[in-house]
Task: inverse folding
């Protein structure tokens, strides 16, 4: 266990270090969600006046929750890019060689993703607060909201790590990103589910991200809904993609 | 013949008889899909504190062997222990007891030299207080103290190699794998690295498994050499044993007066059949080795035959390679046989191209 923790710590430290000292990594990871927040919450703010839009904290808060979860998911996805880059450059082989306990490599990348998202999440929250976001949830509800973000980041990071380890090339970027992007934007991003119609409503209804998004919006509004379903889905995702990441690592070990 | 060499080696290295080998390999094989066997049922033993040179051309299977022994690539069949641990079942223990500098010094361009060492120390579980101290020690040892806080993206090839060696030594491994450590280095850096490898093995007792395609490197550095070609070990022994096995040294003499060349040949005929060139130079093999050189000198002195030049020629490892494989090692170093990723054999890449 100690060996596992040493490896986790080393890999996570490098991930954070490289993010902080390299503006090319840090700036896009912050600007991207900020752009979404400003563009959606600002440009589409009159959606709040649409009949049957009943979200008490307002449209900025409505959009904040999506951008918060989206930044968590993409924080995980970007980690996959870093893993793929490490395989392309050969640095992953150094990690495989140096790590007495190789499971710690996955844990380190995942912890690095979480810590990087902590920076992005804090900036997005601050920006939303400045933009006039209203919060009706109490302390416990906000902690639960944070928990959903953490789990979202974990699931995305495990998916991205696993796929990057299977494919072991930077060209895997698009394949890692696309399913996450599609799932996120086929959820009720701009309006509540009840206002969606046609095929997009049907897809959104069964999209697991919808349950997470509605639960998170409920927590911010102080009226929790579908919490068990949201946490259950994310926990199941973490288990499934945790196993997937472990298999990805085994594939990389076999390939040498 | 091969088993005789191994027995002789065991006599020379008494440690191998009484101590557990640092590296023990039995029938180790690695096959790649749609390709030939990159490593074909090799057996070898390396004693603690020994420098074992693994010599062969590109694509011979050297790097694939190192990848298997360092647990980076699972073997198709066979078994091996490194530091007493099975590479298949005890990978974590193997990795904890070895250091390795692979062919490509895969470094993170964003990290500084010192940060690389601290990261390596963290991965290996060194206590926090010791990480920086160990990094400083190793930076000084490989002459990178001044460049320690520069990003390695700006390092030269030689500096990267030295940092790679330092990284391999962070956790004080008992066994060190160096995969073509001097490829691409200038002569000065190469000599410095050789000196460091000698120091590690002979002063610190670290076992060194070194792959190389350079005859000179294997000759001057290795206590024992395994010559690998097409995935098979074709010869093994000390450099002297290998050379002695295929040929004896020869002495080439140019008399001070060219007209005395006949007399010189007559005198040297007591050692064997003398060979003469058109300029009066006479060459003869010394069947009992270089110790016979003194006899030659005494004979010339008794005959009052003055010489202009006298040269002793030892057989080279290239001669050994030629004798064992039917081709010169230098000629085998062609681009077509360069290894692919993970040391995969050239045939696989050719097959892949055809498949596209």
Result:
């Amino acid at each position: 266990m100690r060996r596992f923790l040493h490896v986790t710590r080393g890999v996570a430290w490098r991930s954070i270090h490289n993010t902080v000292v390299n503006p090319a990594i840090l700036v896009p990871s912050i600007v991207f969600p900020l752009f979404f927040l400003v563009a959606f919450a600002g440009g589409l703010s009159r959606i709040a006046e649409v009949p049957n839009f009943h979200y008490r904290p307002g449209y900025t808060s409505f959009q904040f929750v999506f951008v918060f979860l989206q930044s968590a998911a993409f924080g995980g996805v970007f980690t996959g890019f870093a893993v793929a880059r490490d395989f392309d450059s050969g640095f992953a082989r150094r990690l495989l060689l140096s790590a007495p306990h190789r499971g710690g490599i996955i844990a380190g990348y995942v912890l690095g993703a979480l810590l990087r998202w902590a920076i992005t999440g804090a900036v997005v929250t601050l920006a939303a607060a400045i933009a006039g976001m209203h919060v009706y949830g109490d302390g416990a509800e906000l902690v639960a909201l944070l928990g959903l973000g953490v789990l979202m980041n974990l699931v995305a990071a495990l998916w991205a790590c696993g796929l990057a380890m299977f494919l072991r090339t930077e060209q895997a970027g698009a394949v890692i990103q696309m399913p996450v992007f599609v799932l996120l934007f086929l959820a009720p991003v701009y309006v509540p589910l009840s206002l969606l119609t046609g095929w997009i409503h049907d897809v959104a209804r069964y999209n697991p991200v919808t349950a997470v998004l509605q639960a998170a919006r409920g927590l911010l509004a102080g009226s929790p809904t579908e919490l068990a379903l949201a946490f259950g889905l994310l926990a199941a995702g973490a288990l499934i993609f945790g196993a997937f990441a472990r298999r990805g690592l085994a594939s990389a070990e076999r390939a040498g | 013949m091969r088993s005789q060499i191994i027995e002789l080696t065991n006599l020379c290295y008494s440690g191998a008889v009484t101590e557990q080998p640092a590296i023990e390999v039995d029938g180790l094989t690695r096959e790649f899909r749609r390709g030939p066997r990159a490593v074909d049922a090799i057996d070898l033993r390396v004693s603690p504190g020994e420098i074992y040179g693994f010599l062969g051309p590109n694509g011979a299977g050297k790097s694939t062997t190192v990848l298997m022994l360092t647990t980076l690539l699972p073997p198709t069949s066979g078994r091996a222990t490194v530091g007493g641990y099975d590479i298949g079942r005890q990978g974590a223990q193997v990795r904890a007891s070895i250091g390795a500098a692979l062919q490509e010094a895969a470094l993170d361009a964003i990290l500084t030299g010192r940060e690389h060492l601290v990261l390596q120390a963290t991965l290996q579980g060194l206590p926090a207080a010791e990480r920086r101290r160990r990094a400083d020690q190793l930076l000084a040892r490989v002459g990178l103290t001044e460049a320690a806080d520069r990003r390695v993206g700006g390092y030269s090839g030689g500096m990267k190699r030295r940092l790679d060696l330092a990284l391999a030594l962070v956790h004080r491994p008992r066994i060190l794998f160096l995969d073509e450590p001097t490829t691409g280095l200038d002569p000065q850096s190469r000599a410095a690295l050789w000196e460091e490898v000698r120091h590690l093995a002979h002063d610190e007792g670290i076992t060194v498994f070194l792959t190389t395609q350079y005859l000179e490197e294997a000759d001057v550095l290795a206590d024992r050499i395994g010559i690998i070609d097409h995935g098979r070990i074709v010869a093994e022994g000390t450099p002297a044993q290998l050379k002695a096995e295929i040929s004896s040294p020869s002495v080439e003499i140019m008399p001070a007066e060219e007209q005395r060349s006949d007399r010189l040949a007559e005198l040297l005929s007591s050692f064997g059949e003398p060979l003469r060139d058109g300029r009066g130079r006479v060459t003869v093999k010394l069947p009992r080795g270089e110790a016979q050189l003194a006899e030659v000198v005494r004979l010339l002195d008794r005959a009052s035959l003055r010489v202009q030049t006298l040269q002793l020629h030892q057989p080279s490892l290239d001669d050994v390679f030629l004798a064992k494989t039917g081709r010169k090692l230098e000629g085998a170093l062609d681009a077509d046989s360069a290894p692919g990723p993970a040391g995969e054999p050239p045939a696989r890449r050719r097959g892949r191209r055809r498949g596209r």
In short: Residues 24 and 116 of chain A are 14 Å apart (CA to CA). Chain A has one domain: 2-255. The radius of gyration of chain A is 19 Å. Chain A touches chain B at residues 2-3, 6-7, 9-11, 13-14, 17-18, 21-22, 89-91, 93-102, 253-256 (CB under 8 Å).
